[in-house]
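#onboarding

Welcome to the new folks! Below is a worked example of what a typical request in this channel looks like: someone posts a single protein sequence, and someone else replies with the predicted structure as tokens. Don't worry about understanding the tokens yet, we'll cover that in week two.

Example request:
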Amino acid sequence: MKLSIEEFQWFNSQEYESLFTNEWSHLLQNNLWSESKFIRKARLWKLPVKGVVKGEPSEFYERGLLKSDGVTCDSQPLFHPFRLHTLDKLLQFREQPTDWLTEQSRVWNLVIDLIIALEPIFWPQITGLTRFSLTNEHTRFETVATYKEKVLKFISKLNSSQWREIHHSLKIDASNKDDNSDLYLLLRHSRWEQRKKLSGSIAAGLWFRHIAELLRLGFEQARGEKWLEEDYSHGIWHEGSRTLAYGSERPSEDPYLTRCYLSQSFGLLTGSVVRWYVEGATELYAIRTMIPSPERLNIEVVDLKGNLKSDKQNIAMKLKDCLTADIAQRRFSFISFDTDVSQNVKTIRQQIAQGRVCGYVTAHEPDFEFANFDIQELVEIASELDRTRGYDPATLIEADWSEVSNGKEFEQMYKVRSQRGTSLKGAEWGEALAEYVDRYPVRNGEERPFFKQLRAAVQAVRVKYELQRNEFIVSPDTFKNEKK
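Example response:
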């Protein structure tokens, strides 16, 4: 860290001294620490400091290397938590020549001085909490506004390029403690109650980045500039790559979106990643047989109850609203429908053409049963179902099924030929079909459509929503995903 003579002169000015008045002490968001607590916290952060009640901090203080931010009633030094950064630098370089260490400590202390001056203004933005030391919220708001105006006016006179380099140095110091930038962002957007419990090098890296963020926020507001954020300490991010990773080029400016991206990256999502629309109980129970608790895999299954074509129940309008909500929630839309009803095809094509489908569409031709099974397999499944229920399947096996070409005809034939005389729709039939798919997922050298869609739904939690939406489109003609 380096500062020019001109910058040092600003910090010797009366304008700078006026920032640290009684007003400032009332606005501070962090308590000052006694030396014993300062040492204890330093050790929690794995800083190699000596002492218990007293130790190296007071030694550095007495040598003029470590600045205090107040004194106790018996004239013992009190330290702001941010001084742990200065202490860390002193511990790293304590074996250096005294003259060099004295000169460097001036810069380290001065940097933390300015950041402590910014603390009452921007610390609530970082922690989500505000500490009140004044009589009421209105009084504090007015006092902070006046104080903020003074601080930003002072900052506007400083050399921005020098302080930008200092900001980068602080980020390097943080990454030397903990270089997990994604973990930092996850912690940065978590509750303060959890962050403040951290210890070890992760805590040190987090606090050092918070210190750097205070400096950045101050200069960005005072000078109207944009500095690189605290997770970005080294390496190169190509244009658009941070948006793909975090939802924004500047993750700190869109906490909600960043949390969504990071939660997905770390596998911490609790809401649905996929909303899967099916046309009836058969497919619904087939899914639930293959995935007994789809919600645990972030999959929500919605049964349209075979009414996709029904104007009376206005299912098409309901589907439109659901798909619109999926886009707003960055949720993949999976749609399964039968092509034997022309209105089904028309409705889905319309939703795709209007840009409401990001996900996976399976068009069952002509329907779920015949898109996934041939007639011999369906007879085998139905026969096994009868057998397990105590009925002789001989009449099913011996019947002529050659004229049957869709699920409805198969069900009608089954009701005539089976000794049970009941319908095949619903949970029982869906479970039987799913169990067969589980045993034989491949047919004619290719995965069955139902199994393909199942696999895609399970894997969706690892897919970047924006990448899928920006790079691929569902074809309204083939209903396949295609590169844009």
